[in-house]
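U., I forgot to send this yesterday:
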Amino acid sequence: MNALINSLTNNARVIIAVAFFILSSIPIMAGCSWDSAALVAMHECMAAICVYGIFSSLKRPYSLFKVLNLFYLFFFCIAPMMQYHQGVCMLGTHFTYENYLLTSAVSFAVIVLTHAVYFLAERYFDKKHSENTHSNEHKCEVCLTTRKEVILILLSAAACFYAIYINHFDVMSLFIRDGETNNRIELPTSVFLVGSYFVRPLSLMALLAAVILGVKHRGVKALLFLMLLIAIPPTGVARFLVAAMYLPVLMCFVSRLRRGLSFVLVICLGVMIVFPLLNYFRFYGQRTFEISSIYSQFVDINFDAYSMMMRVIKDDIVTNGMQLAGALLFWMPRSIWAAKPISSGYYVAHTGLSWDDLSMPFWGEGYINFGYFGVIIFTVAFALLLAKLDSKYWCITVKRPKDLNAISYYILLGLLMFILRGSMMSALAYTVAIMTAFYCVKKIVTR
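Result:
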C-alpha cells in the first residue's frame, strides 16, 4: 500500500514538474528567433536544471537548495530572456547579443557546478550527520517558565516601542514603508541598522521560541504575534525582511507548508503576487497596483541581478578581493578604515550609472573580486555551505520537535533570495544582525 502511495506521489510530482517547466519556458521562448536560438536553448537548459532541483526530493519538501533553484529560475532564466526579447536597456545600457551569450554561458556553468557540488556534498554530510546524531542530542528538554515568558514579552515590547518611536508614534508611517506618509526619525546609519535588524527581529524570535517550546499561559502566543505585527509590519518594511520574518512564522504555524509541494508554491506565490503587491505600499500615494505588474516586474530594476553580473563581465570590473574584504569587515566604521569599500552595487553604479541602489548577485560578487576564478570559488563554497546546512537540518534538527535551531534555518530560507540577489556587504551585515538576535533569545530561554 505504501509503495502504491509513493508511486502515485512520484507520478504527481513529475507531472507538476513538467507543467512547471512548460510554464517557465513560455516567457523564455516568447519572441524567439533563429538569431537568438543558442541563447534561448541555454536558458531552457538552465530552467530544466532548476526545475529538477526544485522537485528533486520528496523527503525534503523544503530546503535552501530549492530556494536557490527558485531564485535562479526567476532571476537568471526567465527575467533575462524577457529583458532581452523586449529590448530593455537597463539603466540606459544596451547589452549586445554577445554580452548575453557570454553571461548566460557563465550562468549555465554556475548552475551545473552548483548541482554537482551540492549533491556530492549532501551525501557526505548526510552520512556524517547520521553517524553523529546520538552524540549531538540534547541532554535535557528545554521548557518555558513563567519568568522566561515574561522576558520574551518584554523583549517583544521593546521591539514594538522602538518601531513606534522611530515613526514618531505615527500609525500610517509605521505601516506604510515610503511615500507621502513617511514620518520616520533620521538616525545614524549604524543605529538604524542595529535597530532595524537586531532590535525589531527580537519580536520574531520571542514568538517562535514560544511556539516551539510551548507556553504555560494561554494568550501569550497571541500577544507575541500581535507585537510582531507592530514591530515588523509586513507593509512597512523592506520586502526581503518580510520574507525573512514571516516565512518562519508560516513554517511554524502551518504544518501543511512543511509537506509536499506547498513550500515551493508559496515561494512562487510570493515572487509573483506578494512582492509586487508590497511594492504598492512602498510607493503609497504615488502608484496603483495593477495585475500587469506581476509580469512587468521581470523587466524592471528589481530583477537587475543578471544584468549586473553581465555588466561586471562586460566591463571586466575586478577589485582583487577588496569587495570581499569590505563585506567581511562590514562592522568596521569608516572613521577607522577610511578606504573601506562600498557595496558592490554602489561601486558599479559609481562607474557612471544614473541610479545607485543596485544589487549584485552572489556570483557577480565572485567575479568582481577575483574574475572567473572568483565565480568558481564562490560557487563551490556556497554549494558546500548549503549542503551542510540542509543536511544538518534534515538529519538532526527536524527530528527534535523542540530544537530552536529550526528558527535559524527558517530565517535563512526567507533570507536566501536577498542574499543571492545581493549586494554581499548588505546581505552579510543584515544576516549577522538578525542571527545575533536569534542567538540572544536562544541563550535566554535555554540557560
